[in-house]
C-alpha cells in the first residue's frame, strides 16, 4: 500500500510514531499530483518547493504531537495564502495577499502542509468547475465528466489521492456537490462556524468554508481544526466516533425527495432508509412545503452576489466567462421588491427549520439528483428525462445554505461511476452529530470511499 492510499488518521499515526517523515508523505503526494495534473487539471499551482521546505522544517522540529503533522492539504484558489496569488478562478482578479486566511493558519498551526491551490468555477459562481480561463477540472471516475463545483479541483484532488484532504467553500452546495460527484466526503458547516476572513466572497451571508476528505473520520479531524473546536491545543481534539443509532429520529422531507432522481441515486436512497430502519432508527416523513427548491433562492442570494461584483462587472463584464456573465446580468435585473421577498422567505425558512429539528434529530436526502454531467454539455439525464445540470446538482443543497444549517455529504458503499452519495442535515451547530452518524455508517460498511480507476 502506498502512502497516498492511507487516510489522514492513518498517516498521522505513522508520523506520530516516527515511522514516516513529513517529507516522505508530502513528497509522495506532490509527485502523484504532478503525475495526474495533466489528466485532471485539479490544481492552479502545485507548490512543490514550499511544501517540501515546510515538511522538512516540521521534521527538524519534531512536532509530532500536532493533529495534522505533515498532512498534505489542497486549498481552493478562493482563500488567501500569504505570498501566492488568489485568482478566484477569474481572468482578472489576481490579488497577492499579505497574510494567510485564519482558517488556513489554523490548519498550518495544527501541522498541515499546503501543497497547492485548486481550480474552481469562476468566482465560485457555478456547479461545473468548467472554468474558461484554466480549463475544466476532470472527474477521476471518468475524464469526460464534470467534477461538479464550485470546489471541483479540491474534490478531484482528494478523490484521486493527490492530497489527503482539501478545503473548499459552500454557498449553495459547492463543497457537497463536488464531493458527491467525485465520491468523497464533504461538510457544509453552520453559517459562521468557520471564519470567512481572507475568503473572496460570493454571497457573504451564505458563504461557508468546509473540508473535503476520503473518510468521515478524516473530515471530522479537519473540521475540528478548522473550527478550532479545542481552542488550538495540540493533541486535545475531541473527535467524534461511532454511536448507537437506535432511537434516533430521522426525517425524510417527502415533498423534496420525491422529485425525479437518477435510478442509481433513487435506489441508493431507498437503501439508506432500509439501513436506518434496521438500525432501530425512527424514520418519519416531514411534510413541510418550504423544503423544496424555489425561485426565492435566487431572490435571496442574487442581490448579494450583484453587490460583490458591482465595482467590477460594469466595466469588465467582457472579462467574465459566458455563464457567470449571464447570471450576473440576471442578478442586476432583480428588483428591490423581489430581493425583499427573498429575505422574508429566507427568514421564514430558518424559523421552519428550527421547528423541524424540535421533532427530528437529522434530515436525510440524496446529495444530488444526478451525478453524471459530461463536460461541455449542460443537460443531464435524470431517469427518463433530461434537465439543466444546475437544477439537478443543486436540488438538495442550496436550500440548506439559505437556512444556515450544517450538512454532510458522504458516498455509500454501492458500486457506481461515481458511487451514489447521501446528505445528512442537522440543526445549527450539529456538525458532530452528523459526523458521528457518518462514522457509524462507515464502520458498518454501508458508506465509504471507493478508489476511482486511475
Characterise the protein shown here.
By secondary structure, this protein is α+β, with helices and mostly antiparallel strands. It has a single domain, classed as Amidase signature (AS) enzymes, CATH 3.90.1300.10. It is built from 16 helices and 17 strands. Strands 1-3-2-8-10-9-16-17-13-11-12 form an eleven-stranded mixed sheet, with helices on both faces. The protein is globular. The model is unreliable at 231-235 (pLDDT under 50).
Q: According to CATH, what is the class?
A: Alpha Beta
Tally of separate domains: 1
Number of helices: 16
Q: Biggest sheet, strands in spatial order?
A: 1-3-2-8-10-9-16-17-13-11-12
Radius of gyration: 20 Å
CATH architecture: Alpha-Beta Complex
Distance between the termini: 15 Å
CATH topology: Amidase signature (AS) enzymes
Can you count the beta strands? Answer: 17
Shape: globular
Mean pLDDT across every amino acid position = 97
Largest sheet geometry: 11 strands, mixed
Q: Looking at this structure, what is the CATH superfamily?
A: Amidase signature (AS) domain
Structural class: alpha+beta
Quote the beta fraction: 15-25%
Oligomer: single chain
Uncertain residue segments: 231-235
What is the helical fraction, as a range of percent? 25-40%
What's the gist of this structure?
It contains 16 helices and 17 strands. With 454 residues, the protein is α+β, with helices and mostly antiparallel strands.
